Structures are given as structure tokens and as C-alpha cells.
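thought: fold this chain, then report.
action: predict
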Amino acid sequence: MKSEPVKSQPVKFVPAVAAPAALSARTRCFVVRQLGLVVRSEGAQVFLPELSELPRLGLSTADLQYLGRLHEEDCFALDAGRAELSAPWAVQSLRSLYDQLTEEEFGVAGRAVQIATFAVTHRFCGGCGQPTTRDAVERCVRCRSCDLVFYPRVSPAIIVLVRRGQEALLASSARFATGFYSTLAGFVEPGESLEQTLVREVFEEVGIQVENVRYFGTDLSGVRLVANDWEWSLGDGAPLHGNAQDLLLVICGRRIPENLLEGTPSARFAGRDAEAG
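observation:
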């Protein structure tokens, strides 16, 4: 698998487990409920609660999880539990906040959701059932009864853009909104490499074999890969098959024509090139 040089970026978020003795003047609290955050909306902007606002939200600071510093501001994660929220505070899904948070804030938000969820689901030992205690140095919890140690679960995944020349393959699923197409993605199974995951997921979803895999980058959604020069699994021109409900070929570098998004026959790919003019 070919790799491209990764450009270094200025450090904007510094992760840590223990909060400093002196906190920053302004703090950010990522209050989690399921896969969403508690935010206050003002027009097109959203704001996270500060540490001083948590009591007014009916939230205890006893279970705060320190995340680190973002732009020199201390960040915390906390599960909202069953606290009753009142205006202007409300829960928005992490997905819906993608365009409203900066890239750095969204990255910390994803971290906060995972850490807050881990804290809630690992209050008791999975081996003996006794309460766990939070470690002061590492991001983990320990069972003092049987000495088991639990770390936050990480679920590696890949997302891939499958290309053939200047065309890209997108797929739709029954659970997607009408007219929504996406690149292919999936979770890594035990014993798989990232490349093996890519090959398996693409074949399961659309029934084709890919080659010339190229690493693109890594983010919260998983490792991004590009597969060039893919071939049909049953020979050139054979129908695609797999779990995807609908397939679409688009021309890379061009805006997807509106008629394709409207669900016209030209948006359906059934063994021949889509008419993506």
C-alpha cells in the first residue's frame, strides 16, 4: 500500500487525563447524551456549556472527565444522564453538529462522546461485578477486587473512495435518506489488516474486487483510503451485486448533476456506466 507524506500541523489540542491545578479562564464542557451533545444555539452558531454553568443544568461535576486543552482552554466530558434540560439548552446529534463546530472542536467532541460513554458503561467490573475506580494517571478504570483493567474501546474503521479513471463509485442504502449516496466504509474485524478490511467491505457492499489501494488520511470516521483501477468481480460489464441498495457512478471533479440526485433512471447503475454528463 502506497503512503503519501503527512504534513505536520500546529498542535491545537493537547490531550491529558488529569486536570491542571489552575484551570483556564474559559472552559468547554462536552456534555454527552447518547451520541449527541448538549448545546445552546444562537442563530447559526452553537455554544458548549462552561464549567460554571453545569449546576444550572442540574449536572454534577463529580463525574467530570478531563480531556485536555483546546486552544489553551480546558475541556471536559460529562454524561448528561437523566438531567432535564430546558431552553436554551438542547441535545443535538454529533452528526448534525459537523458543520457547526470547527474541525478541532468536532474532533474533541468525538473524543468526549467515547470517553463519557466509557465512563458510564464501565462503572462495574465485567469480571466480578464489583465497582471500578478511575485511574489517576491512565485513561482507564481498575477493579480493586480482581485487578482487571479496562480501557476505552476503540473500533477501527475504514472509508474508501473507489475510482475507475475519472469516475467514482458511490452507494446508497435502505437506511439512507432518499437521494443520499456515500463512499463505502466498514469496521475492521478481529485479525484483519486495514487493507483486508477494505477489500472485504467493498466486495460485500458492491461485489467488486479492488486494487492499487492508496492511503489518504485518518480522522474520526476512520482511515481514509483510495482504491484505483477497480475491476468487475464477474468480468468487465457484469452487474454489481452485494448489500448496497443502489449504486451511482459520478465523474470526479464535477458537481453531481441534479437529475442524478432526483432519482431518475440515469442515477441507477446496473452493469453499465451511469450517464453522468
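thought: worth noting. The mean pLDDT is 78.
final: C-alpha cells above.
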